[in-house]
């Protein structure tokens, strides 16, 4: 189908940095092994030297479309912007960073997670609004409250925040809520979920098993009741067969009853306004959207969320997630909603990346234009009359 005929209404850069979790070597639920640097450093001096932090992610404007930003795996690739215009990112309406942006290992490095954020966000500070989804690695670095309030960074105009960027005029239970929705273009609504509202580290502030951090007793009990291993120790997925049962690990979480109600009401309102919706969540919402259907990166109460999506008068066109590191493109057979799990650039081949530009059209069609490890696809909405 021809893009010009459809009339693009929205262009979005989507990236899933996904700092790697290695439960098999962790004392706690998830140990981080990533440092993050911006590619615009002129030498390797800013690259963290810890052996465990050898892989980094960085932004770069993507040729031949320098207005579009791409997250990629850095491996000696340091490229300065060719012109100041390269840094404006004017080719997309917003950037969605799907979570696990800054790894917990930065806690052990000079400047900590804030320095990593400062370096990584510098190049996109003057660009389009950036949505930062809350991932487990964000919680290993920062307290939830400071992320929701916004973390100011030296020299940067825009704080790092997991609540809605003010420029988007979002609708949310509160200004600092990590779940919200907004309409970036006529006929479209984007819903951002917080899959760690209930989790063993829902208040964040450190790495369980490494830093001094208080675990949430209710969430620990809930997870532990469904897992035969000690979830506060390593190998918490040991012996659990691939499938839905494997979701009961501490690197996942759940949405609250209030968030479910909010989602239901938001979809209802979107339907009344004839808006198509896109859901963004760090954690996967459909078992078939986890790699090999292993269930390891599935939301604890995914069934409740699916129930809301399936019973909506106009089910979402797509759910876009991160967390699993690998690309999975699946479709809910009940609702017709596409569930796309995006791969991480930290596991892409050096010089490649894993990022996508998503284009939304006025007839409800979504085009994912993949870069690097992200496969391109065209997604039809589930109920719109003109989508077949
Ligand atoms: Zn994650």
TrEMBL record:
Gene Ontology MF terms: 2',3'-cyclic-nucleotide 2'-phosphodiesterase activity; ADP-ribose diphosphatase activity; CDP-glycerol diphosphatase activity; manganese ion binding
InterPro entries (UniProt xref): Calcineurin-like_PHP (IPR004843), Metallo-depent_PP-like (IPR029052)
Secretion signal span: none
Any Pfam family: Metallophos
Domain Calcineurin-like phosphoesterase: 90-325
Superkingdom field: Eukaryota
PANTHER family noted in UniProt: MANGANESE-DEPENDENT ADP-RIBOSE_CDP-ALCOHOL DIPHOSPHATASE, PTHR16509
Name of the molecule in the record: Calcineurin-like phosphoesterase domain-containing protein
The organism's taxonomic lineage, starting at the top: Eukaryota, Sar, Alveolata, Dinophyceae, Suessiales
């Amino acid at each position: 189908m021809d893009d010009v005929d459809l009339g693009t209404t929205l262009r979005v850069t989507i990236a899933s940095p996904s700092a790697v979790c290695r439960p098999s070597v962790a004392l706690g639920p998830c140990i981080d092994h990533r440092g993050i640097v911006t590619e615009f450093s002129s030498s390797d001096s800013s690259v963290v030297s810890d052996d465990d932090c050898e892989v980094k992610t960085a932004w770069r404007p993507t040729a031949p479309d320098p207005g579009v930003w791409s997250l990629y795996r850095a491996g000696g690739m340091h490229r300065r912007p060719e012109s100041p215009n390269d840094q404006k990112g004017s080719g997309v309406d917003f950037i969605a960073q799907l979570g696990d942006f800054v790894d917990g290992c930065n806690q052990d490095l000079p400047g900590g997670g804030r320095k990593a954020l400062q370096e990584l966000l510098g190049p996109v500070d003057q660009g389009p609004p950036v949505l930062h989804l809350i991932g487990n690695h964000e919680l290993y670095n920062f307290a939830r409250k400071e992320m929701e309030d916004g973390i100011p960074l030296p020299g940067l105009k825009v704080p790092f925040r997991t609540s809605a960027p003010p420029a988007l005029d979002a609708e949310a239970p509160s200004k600092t809520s990590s779940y919200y929705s907004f309409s970036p273009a006529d006929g479209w609504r984007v819903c951002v979920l917080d899959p760690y509202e209930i989790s063993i580290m829902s208040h964040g502030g450190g790495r369980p098993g490494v830093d001094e951090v208080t675990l949430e007793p209710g969430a620990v009990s809930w997870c532990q009741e469904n897992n035969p291993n000690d979830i506060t120790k390593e190998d918490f997925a040991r012996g659990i067969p691939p499938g839905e049962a494997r979701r009961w690990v501490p690197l996942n979480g759940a949405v609250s009853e209030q968030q479910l109600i909010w989602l239901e009401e938001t979809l209802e309102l979107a339907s009344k306004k004839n808006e198509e919706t896109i859901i963004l969540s760090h954690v996967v919402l459909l078992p078939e959207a986890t790699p090999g259907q292993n269930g390891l990166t599935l939301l604890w109460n995914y069934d409740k969320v699916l129930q809301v999506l399936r019973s909506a008068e106009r089910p979402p066109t797509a759910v876009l997630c991160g967390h699993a590191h690998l690309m999975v493109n699946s479709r809910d057979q009940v609702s017709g909603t596409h569930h796309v799990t995006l791969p991480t650039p930290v596991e892409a081949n050096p010089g490649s990346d894993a990022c996508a530009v998503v284009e939304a059209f006025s007839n409800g069609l979504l085009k994912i234009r993949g870069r690097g490890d992200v496969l391109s696809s065209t997604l039809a909405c589930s109920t719109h009359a003109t989508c077949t």
